[in-house]
Specification:
single chain; 7-stranded mixed sheet; 11 strands; binds pyridoxal-5'-phosphate
């Protein structure tokens, strides 16, 4: 007698599950087909969204059937969301989600392996290990690199940071900071570094004052001479350099730090080199990428974001380390002999999480669906589209390219009246104008950009990590921006003269 006689309200009869699932997939297929014709965002106010949700409604006392519930939830989401899967979504560093990854998340949830322990997730743990190996291979790192998937770039950077901390101060895990009264730990990062480093320095107990900000050159790359000086000064003062955080693909302009030179310096001084490649590291797979990405293999740890340039649905970050034992030394609470001879990996020992979901599946499926060659092509196309946009900006009389790197093009709108001038007053007006213009662009629903501040100036920024964007989308941008720019400028002048 195998039938289950308990009628738990959460259970779905397999036939109900099938019907609800098919209906949902049908609805999503239609959504994907119609996506390019929808506004990128409905631009609603928080009040409007709360009203649509009936946000103040109390917790329902009784439940409702799953199929209509899923349908209405899908409709709610489709009507009131911003779509980063839209071909003209070019904001931040957020990619279109791979469809196979959408289905992969469903499959992962259905099997529901706990990828903290091999015993609880035999094949899922092996798939994660293979995914990590493939990621290392894709960016040109040798097979000794290992690691694990985490929620995103911030977590990947933090895991690398904590591994460096344990390596620099072995007593820190038992005694905390400053531990045995050893020298204060210092970390080094360029002024273009993403804010993850503030959070990491804070959470790791160093405090943000432990960050030494290294200036950048005209190309927004870390100045290696300044890094050397900062190291010398701190060592002379009795501090201990714990890590250098280089960036491979800055969020503002896609700049890649001079990784070969930084790696040489770190090796010379015996300092942990961490590379934040959350955005840019995957470009190493494509032709036309900056040479310095070939130095990724010299890093001690690398943060990557499959939910950026591998186009995985959120969330999927990845941290790679040259020596996986460094992760165990930073996170495991078992004696090392506990693991030897088991021939399997328990990811609980390599990172901060205990129970872990099967994030790897969606990434692994996409890598199998398109292969190395598919990724090289898509990433290369994204970079070519950014160059195409940059060239179009240079030709347009009202648009001014500001910086371009990897798949980013930063630029601004300059009305005819302000063309060719200079001075602080002009710059302030251009900053204000472009800030207002970005607001208008984002609300328009026809294009979504974000901003960058480059050498103190406010810029609009397109970042193409979107396999749906094509040349027609790119070619439409200059006129779209210029048209809205004229409107905003006219309003500003109208308001100014009255
Ligand atoms: C996106 C990004 C991060 C943060 O990654 P999340 O996935 O948003 O946590 C860190 N550094 C760089 C360079 C990034 O582009």
């Amino acid at each position: 007698m195998n039938a289950n006689h308990r009628s738990a309200p959460l259970n779905l009869d397999p036939d109900e599950f099938r019907a609800a699932g098919h209906a949902l997939v049908d609805l999503l297929a239609d959504f994907l087909r119609g996506l390019p014709d929808r506004p990128i965002t409905p631009s609603e106010t928080p009040e409007e969204v709360r009203r649509a949700l009936d946000a103040g409604a109390p917790l329902p006392e009784e439940g409702e059937p799953a199929e209509p519930l899923l349908r209405s939830a899908a409709e709610l989401l489709i009507e009131h969301s911003l779509f980063n899967g839209h071909p003209r979504f070019l904001g931040y560093v957020t990619s279109s989600p791979a469809p196979v990854g959408m289905l992969g998340d469903l499959l992962a949830a259905a099997i529901n392996p706990n990828v903290g322990a091999w015993r609880l997730s035999p094949v899922a743990s092996e798939i994660e290990a293979q995914t990590v190996r493939w990621i290392a291979e894709l960016i040109g790192c040798p097979p000794e690199f290992g690691g694990l998937l985490v929620s995103g770039g911030n977590m990947a950077n933090m895991v690398g940071f904590l591994a460096a901390r344990a390596a620099a101060a072995p007593t820190v895990r038992t005694q905390g900071i400053p531990g045995d009264g050893g020298p204060p730990l210092r970390v080094y990062a360029s002024t273009e570094t993403h804010t993850w480093i503030h959070k990491a320095a804070d959470i790791a107990g160093l405090g943000t004052d432990a960050i030494r900000w290294i200036p950048v050159d005209q190309a927004m790359r870390m100045e290696v001479a300044a890094l050397r000086e900062a190291l010398d000064t701190d060592v002379a003062d009795g501090a201990a350099p714990m890590l250098v955080a280089a960036t491979a693909g800055s969020v503002s302009t896609g700049a890649v730090d001079p990784l070969f030179d930084v790696a040489d310096l770190c090796r010379e001084r015996g300092i942990w080199l961490h590379v934040d490649g959350a955005y840019g590291a995957f470009a190493a797979a494509a032709e036309g990428a900056p040479d310095d990405l070939r130095a990724l293999a010299h890093a001690d740890s690398i943060a990557l974001d499959p939910h950026k340039w591998l186009y995985a649905p959120l969330e999927a970050g990845c941290v790679l380390v040259r020596d996986v034992e460094r992760l165990r030394a930073a996170f495991s609470y078992h004696p090392p002999y506990y693991h030897f001879g088991q021939g399997s990996v328990d990811f609980v020992d390599l990172g901060p999480q205990n129970s872990r979901g099967f994030r790897a599946l969606k990434v692994w499926l996409a890598m199998r669906q398109v292969g190395r060659r598919g990724y090289a092509r898509m990433i290369g196309d994204d970079m070519r589209l950014a160059k195409r946009l940059h060239a179009a900006m240079s030709r347009h009389p009202e648009l001014e390219p500001i910086a371009s790197g990897l798949s980013i093009c930063a630029f601004r709108y300059v009305p005819e009246a302000l063309r060719g001038g200079e001075g602080e007053d002009r710059e302030r007006r251009l900053d204000a104008l472009n800030e207002a213009l970005l607001e208008r662009i984002q609300r328009s629903g026809t294009l979504f950009l974000s901003n960058a501040v480059v050498r103190g100036r406010y810029a609009l920024r397109a970042c193409i990590v979107n396999f749906r964007t094509d040349e027609a989308d790119i070619d439409a941008i200059p006129d779209l921006v210029a048209t809205m720019g004229r409107e905003v400028w006219a309003e500003m002048r109208g308001a100014g003269t009255r």
